[in-house]
Amino acid sequence: MVDIGRLTRGTSLASGVGFVLALLFGILTPAVLAIVHALSLASVSFDAAIVIAMVAIASITLLAISCRRRLVRISEAIDAIQCSIAIYDESDRLMLGNKRYCEVLGLPPEEMQPGTSYSDIVRRSLVKYLPPDRIEAELARRLTLHQSADGRPADRLYPNNRWERVTKTRLPSGLNVGIAVDVTEYYTLKDQLDMEARRFSALARGAPVGICLVDEHSAIQFVNDALVTMMGADNGEALIESAATFSVDRSEVKSFRGLIARLRTTLAETEVKLDVRGTTRHIIVRKAFVPIADSAGRGAAVSASSAADTAENLLIFVDITKRKTAEARISYLALHDPLTGALNRVAFAEDLDHASAGADMKSPAALIAIDLDRFKPVNDLHGHAVGDELLCRVVERIGAGIPGDCRLYRIGGDEFAVLCPPPSGVNAMAFARTILERLTEPFSIEGSRILIGASVGISSLPSDTDNPQTLIHYADLALYQGKSRGGGTVHAFSPAVLSSADTRRIMEFELAEALENGDIDIVMQPIFGLDREHPLAAETLARWTNRRTGESISPATFIPVAEAANLITRLDLTVFRRAIATYAELTAAGCGFPTLMVNVSVRTLEQCDVVDLVRETLERHGVAGTSVVMEVTENFVIHDAHRLSETMQAISQFGIRFALDDFGIGYTSLRMLADLPVSYLKIDQSFVRDLSNPDHRRQHRIIRAIVELASQLELHVVAEGIEDEATFDQLRELGCELFQGFLLGRPASAAAWSGGKVGVGKGTAAA
Asked: Are 365 and 356 in contact (CB under 8 A)?
């Protein structure tokens, strides 16, 4: 034995001392008894005293021998225990330490003398296996744990490469009792399990498919790198906490945790869709059950119905986006033109049959046939590569403005068609004109400026015919009627399409002459506030009296002609100059009003020199820009939003403000309201007309929404087409602040304004 042996030998020494004391006691006892007897203080005989002393000596000797044997046996038993045992006194000096304790510390028996302090023993042990720079820190940690001695176990690695689970307890007497159990086998198994886990992790992380391990409580235990990348996350933690939206069985699932919970209840193979940075990914998830082993190591039997509740799930994610893309490409090519991307004849035939089946007089189907003008010379002069690029650009321009459910098709060569099925409700004529405008703009391809045009024909089903094939024929007839006269026009099929084409061509020439000769005149219609006494503004309206026939041509007739014949910019600038000059005269005569509104088209604002023309006109007549509002119709398609915004901003520098006319029926988006410097919204007459009709209550909600939108954007609202008091009262209740219509005042000439004859009037037609 080591320390316990020394303790035994100390006990033996104590027993020897007791023996001597007992012997002295046995010798002295008869003498004491003799003295007592001599003094007659006791009645015990001397022989009896000797016998008593001898018995005492024998008893003490036997007791000492018995104690020594017991201590030796206890010492042997303590040394034989495979646990380390150590006892320190209240001053943390070693009292007892067994052989195992010595081996664990890696110290020889001579360094484990009873009475040695705990700090000295630990320091000697640490020197055996720790670098010098770590000894003091570890010693301090050990001393802290030794002093606390709260009975809680702590695992330590000792010099003999053995792990010991140490428990120290401070007894009420102050003794510190320490017991350590060898747990090296546990750590060996743990290392083996860790190695297996690392192997699994390495295999899983390097796998080309996504892997996710989920326990029986739906807690995510592991995700590999491939899955993190597949899901577009930065790391595993970010993926697990992801709030992305997934699509499973056509229903949305919020968050990755929600997806995992959903997958545990789905079939063994499920398809998932995810949008990652604007790209849709298609993923197949295959699920495998991992039964939980019982205490005997036997795999638990798992039925299909209870598998999700009793087993872990190994989810395998396979990205099939490329396969889906290939399938979609095959499907796409079956219905699309491979050059331009437009739908092809096959798709056109299918869609036309479907549209014709659902068309009626209330919801007609419209077909717009388009044939490019001057396309063949492009191929001849620039080559077929440029011609192909031009066709692609044509599809881009037409497709960019297609409304509603309409679809664009390439029928063949330079022939295209747009089908507007029911119930799209698209104004086919307005859209066809927009197409024509887009195609008359120059194209820039490989450094060449290319000008083409188009001829457009329109037919409608069932108003023109109830046969889909006849519908195509009628659209082609209307198209070729215009093409035979030089192209660049839009024709709707009708029995009188030929005579209509002749009349329109004559009107184009006469309108051009009217602009040249100054035959375009203006009138101004007042706009009132709530008091209705003094006009706050006036809108300038163009008027044309045909010099040849003497007929007054309606703006609804000649303005579309101006747009189709590319005369709209000349018309706009003519009206603007006339309006500014008239306003300056009225103001000088004291008959002016605060604000002049003048209509301009987007095409005019897109002219490169319009800013200079506006500035020169204002300066020539001495009119402040703050008195002018330019009305831009909302029924337009913007070719270059950035350029338009820059032009309007430049004009705004003069103080001119802008209004959106006919608001609510065109193409305005909230993005445009945010980007363009608009100050007024003019509610279209279609919302104001018959406002008092009980069947038109929805119009009230629309107008209120427009007013609230304008209020939020700090815009003024003008209501047009007011013809009766009931309509005025309802508009006022809905929050409108500016009013225009025959009820308040008809359009009047400059002479009428200067003569003070502009005021409240009556009428039955909208302004």
From this structure: yes
